[in-house]
Every structure is written in structure tokens, then in C-alpha cells.
Design goal:
seven-stranded mixed β-sheet; 11 strands; 37% strand
């Protein structure tokens, strides 16, 4: 990745030099070179994005391996021993009213992070590969912490929706499991449609009921 960053730096320096020649002196040849370099930079940036994501995934896998190994060894005698965890999210752009996240149509709801805490008396746990499904329609997978996603509600019909989070759960002493967490969402026309007694907007933590299986 260091070599790729160096190439981006060199290309950018060349682009700036040629772009300035065209802007300041009207050098058409320099303008042609600048345009050509801009395309090369775009390609390099795409390569960097892919390399950066791959590096992040590799780091997370390396961090997870000791826990996964412990889980597999400990569970060899009982594959039905599923993880015992509580799943929670931090969010912004919505208001929690009795377990439902309210938002005004057109606003953006952000799931800022997804986390798990081991049930009382159980061993350390972690999650991986959080998949998001809205009303049965897959939205995508967030593979590395903090597993965030942003939802633009401009095209959401006013009414009730369900955002389901599905994730892999690794817990020491347990089988590898899968957890599902439904997050009820209500899209309303205006801020006055949010039930009284709640403070709209802001960031908060939401802990819902999660079902875990293997």
C-alpha cells in the first residue's frame, strides 16, 4: 500500500503542475496532460480504496482468530451451545419512542455502531459481518467495526418499517452463532407527528431483543 500511496502522490504533483500551467499560461498541452493524469489518479484512488478495505478486513480477521479458535475448541463437545449476548446499536437522526425509532421523511437515520455484550456470567464475545435488511429488502453488509450504515428516508413511504440486523457472533466457549435484531422504524410527515414527550433528533443507544442460533 505504501507504493500505491507514493504513486498517488507523484501523480497528484504532476497534475497540479500541469493544471497550473494551463490555468496561468494557457498551455493547452499541459491541460491535456492534466486531464490524462486526472484519469490515472481516479484509477489509483479506486485501487487504494480496495486495498484499504482489504487491509481492514485482514486486521479484523487476525484479531478474531484467537477468539474463534478458542470457540471452536471449546465447542467440540456440544455444537448446540449457542452464544449468549445482548446486541445494541448507537444511532443518530431518529427518536426512540417505546422501542420504535421515529424519523421525519427525508431525514437520514445513521446506525453509527453495532455492538454486543456477553450475557451475565458468560465469556467474552464479538460480532462480525453485520447485514442490513429493510422490510425484507437487503441493503448491504458492513464487514468491519463499527458496522455503520446511513439510510436516506427520502424514498421511504410514511408508515412503519422494520430494519433487521443479521450478524455472526463469536463467543468463547460457545458455537459460532448468528444473531438477528429487528429495529422498528416509523417514518412520519413532520416533526409534530412524533409522539409527545420525546426529544427529536440527537444520538442515543438502542438495545433490542436479539435471537441467536447456530
Amino acid at each position: 500500500m505504501e507504493e500505491l500511496v507514493a504513486k498517488i502522490g507523484e501523480a497528484y504533483a504532476s497534475f497540479i503542475a500541469d493544471a497550473n500551467l494551463q490555468a496561468e499560461k494557457g498551455n493547452k498541452a499541459a491541460g491535456t496532460r492534466a486531464r490524462k493524469t486526472s484519469l490515472a489518479i481516479e484509477k489509483l484512488l479506486k485501487e487504494f480504496r480496495k486495498a484499504s478495505i482489504d487491509a481492514s478486513k485482514l486486521l479484523f480477521i487476525l484479531m478474531a482468530l484467537p477468539l474463534l479458535a478458542a470457540t471452536m475448541v471449546s465447542c467440540s463437545d456440544d455444537d448446540k451451545d449457542v452464544p449468549e449476548v445482548n446486541i445494541g446499536i448507537t444511532y443518530s437522526g431518529a427518536t426512540d419512542v417505546d422501542g420504535t425509532l421515529y424519523t421525519v421523511q427525508g431525514d437520514t437515520i445513521s446506525i453509527d455502531s453495532v455492538y454486543c455484550t456477553p450475557a451475565e456470567g458468560t465469556k467474552p464475545a464479538m460480532i462480525n459481518d453485520v447485514a442490513y435488511v429493510l422490510d425484507g429488502r437487503p441493503l448491504g453488509i458492513s464487514p468491519v467495526p463499527p458496522f455503520s450504515i446511513s439510510l436516506d428516508t427520502e424514498g421511504f413511504p410514511v408508515g412503519r418499517h422494520v430494519l433487521t440486523l443479521q450478524m455472526t457472533v463469536l463467543q468463547e466457549g460457545k458455537s459460532v452463532g448468528t444473531a438477528w435484531m429487528p429495529v422498528p422504524i416509523a417514518v412520519v410527515d413532520t416533526i409534530t407527528d412524533i409522539p409527545s414527550g420525546a426529544t427529536p433528533g440527537g444520538s442515543a443507544t438502542f438495545t433490542g431483543k436479539a435471537t441467536t442460533s447456530n
